[in-house]
Write a structure and sequence with these properties.
Layout: E1 2-8, H1 18-25, E2 29-32, H2 34-40, E3 49-52, H3 57-64, E4 69-75, H4 83-90, E5 95-99, H5 104-111, E6 120-123, H6 130-138, E7 142-146, H7 154-163, E8 169-175, E9 184-188, H8 190-193, E10 202-208, H9 236-246, E11 253-257, H10 263-271, E12 276-281, H11 285-297, E13 303-306, E14 322-325, H12 332-342, E15 348-353, H13 356-368, E16 372-379, E17 387-393
Parallel strand pairs: 1-4, 1-5, 2-3, 2-4, 6-7, 11-12, 11-14, 12-13, 14-15
Antiparallel strand pairs: 7-10, 8-9, 8-10, 15-17, 16-17
Helix pairs in contact: 12-13
């Protein structure tokens, strides 16, 4: 099966080259979104058939099957988060003949006369916030964003940036780019975006005005603390050593069990912003505390839960490949048993023992779950007791 995929903009007067015009004239089956049909309908041959591209996509591809060749109209560059990618995923054996146009972020950069070779791209079109959060923490100089008209509008994006303290970007918003009568583009401060109304489709380019601090190791006194108790927080050198043993650079899902202030989760997100982090804490007050520290240090995207970890239903949550145990309440064996039952076989478990008793509890919990103690490092900070930073896991 062959697809001719033609990229277009929002201009209602399309000017195709002779090759594309010939492709259109020789075919009768066309496909695209409702908006695309309105743009090109006057250019299509008499008695054409149109297949709308809309959810669910498997139904669309079922409608394609009776035909040997189909002409598809798509926005901009169909390989840029576009429908050509979908064809490759749904019908990997299909032949694609591609006629790309500028993608929407290229058009916005052109209007702004902005060199864009260093622009980091994020799509929020029907996608979660994760990649956007990662880009903010990484602090890219330019971030191009594909929006949607539901959860990821310019207003929502500006709100998220300001909530986590990212007021160090200017926001350029392009609307209906390519539509000669209606396109608009302007640059705003994030706090001014809420005052505007934006037509859809739109997109955004963020330009950094100044760097935001991203320390390697956050001093414990800088965190918002539980009742002001500095002894209830994992000390910075211990925290960094714990993250090192977890080897998070090559991991994707990290669980922090007993997060208290959220210092380990916040530090992990700061150093490894690609991580999907899920944090658990028995105390209800923990929710407010971790949220305040996420805002203070600009680490959006940490999912946190309060309640008894052992009775909590975690079946719908992504399985961890690294776990930090920050608290156990005397139930270390039960906690390690649950962690093993929900994690992948290579998951590392790290625990900081502040006494000989807690050290032995962790060792016993590992043995009972057929896991081994892989590392046990002693560290002493100032006049505090010696801490054992311990790593357990499967020895296979």
């Amino acid at each position: 099966m062959r697809f001719f995929v033609i990229g277009i903009d929002d201009n209602k007067e399309q000017h195709f080259n002779p090759e594309i015009t010939n492709v259109i004239s020789l075919h009768t089956v066309f496909s695209g979104g409702v908006r695309h049909r309105e743009i090109v309908k006057d250019l299509l041959p008499v008695n054409y058939r149109w297949i709308d591209i809309k959810a669910p996509l498997p139904t669309v591809f079922e409608k394609y099957k009776p035909y040997e060749e189909i002409v598809v109209f798509a926005s901009g560059d169909p390989l840029f988060f576009g429908f050509a990618n979908t064809i490759q995923r749904m019908m990997p054996d299909a032949e694609i003949v591609l006629y790309p146009y500028f993608n929407s972020l290229q058009l916005l950069a052109h209007r702004l006369l902005m060199p864009y070779q260093d622009m980091h791209i994020v799509s929020l079109t029907g996608r979660p916030w994760h990649k956007f959060d990662e880009a903010l923490i990484m602090g890219f100089d330019k971030i191009g964003i594909l929006t949607d008209n539901k959860e990821h509008t310019p207003h929502a994006i500006a709100d998220r940036m300001l909530y986590y303290g990212y007021d160090n970007y200017m926001m350029s918003v392009g609307e209906l780019l390519g539509n000669k009568e209606q396109e608009k583009y302007n640059t705003y401060r994030p706090e001014d975006v809420k005052k505007q109304n934006f037509a859809f489709p739109n997109n955004i380019i963020l330009q950094k005005t100044e760097p935001r601090p991203r320390p390697f190791g956050i001093p414990e006194c800088d965190f918002n603390l539980l009742d002001g108790r500095v002894k209830m927080i994992t000390k910075m050198p211990v925290r960094l050593l714990s993250l090192s043993l977890l080897d998070l650079r090559d991991k994707s899902v990290f669980w922090d069990v007993g997060f208290c202030t959220g210092s380990v989760s916040v530090e992990a997100k700061m150093q490894f912003p690609h991580l999907h982090i899920l944090a658990f804490e028995k105390r209800e007050k923990g929710a407010e505390l971790i949220d305040s520290n996420m805002r203070k240090f600009g680490t959006p995207g940490i999912s946190f839960f309060t309640g008894d970890f052992l009775t909590m239903n975690t079946d719908s949550l992504p399985c961890p490949d690294a776990v930090f145990v920050g608290g156990h309440g005397g139930k270390m064996k039960e906690i390690v048993t649950k962690i093993k039952s929900v994690s992948n076989s290579k998951a590392a478990i790290v625990f900081n023992a502040v006494s000989g008793e807690s050290r032995q509890m962790f060792i016993d919990a590992l043995l009972e779950n057929n896991l081994v103690l892989m590392q046990d490092i002693e560290i002493k900070i100032d006049d505090f007791n010696t801490i054992h930073v311990m790593k357990g896991g499967d020895n296979i």
